[in-house]
Amino acid sequence: MREKEQYKTAIRLWGKPFQILMLSEECGELLSAVSKWQRGRMAEICVIEEMADVTIMMRQILVMMGREPNSTVLQDKIKEKLMRMKKLIDKELEKG
Questions:
Q1: Over the chain, what is the mean pLDDT?
Q2: For residue 96, pLDDT beyond 90
Q3: Cβ atoms within 10 A of the Cβ of 69, count?
Q4: 53 closest CA partner among 75, 29, 77, 79
Q5: Euclidean distance between CA atoms 54 and 50, whole angstroms
Q6: Mean pLDDT over residues 32-36, rounded?
């Protein structure tokens, strides 16, 4: 089953409200994992696993919006935000 079809099937089976709730749950698990990793209480691979879970749920939300799971719109927004971050970094570095 292709990725998009898998997401559509999950949405059809469990419903949009539940999948949105799952995104919230997965985000919480990622936050907890990062906190534990920062304190040396969790392995990197566990954090990466939680990142994968959040990514999957984010892609499902894109499908709910009628977009492709690997939407260029999302990639474009990421590029915009990285450019903004670069400007902030450059400004800070100029301060010395």
A1: 96
A2: no
A3: 19
A4: 29
A5: 6
A6: 98
Q: Phi-psi category of 90—alpha, beta or left, where left has phi over 0 and alpha has psi -120 to 50?
A: alpha
Query: What's at 42, amino acid-wise?
Result: M
Residue 10 half-sphere exposure toward CB, CA atoms < 13 A: 20
* 84 pLDDT above the threshold of 90: yes
Taking only Cα atoms into account, the Rg of the chain, rounded to an integer number of angstroms, comes to: 17
Tokens 């301060």 belong to 95
E-assigned strands of 36-81?
none
40 pLDDT more than 90: yes
Q: How long, in residues, is the chain?
A: 96
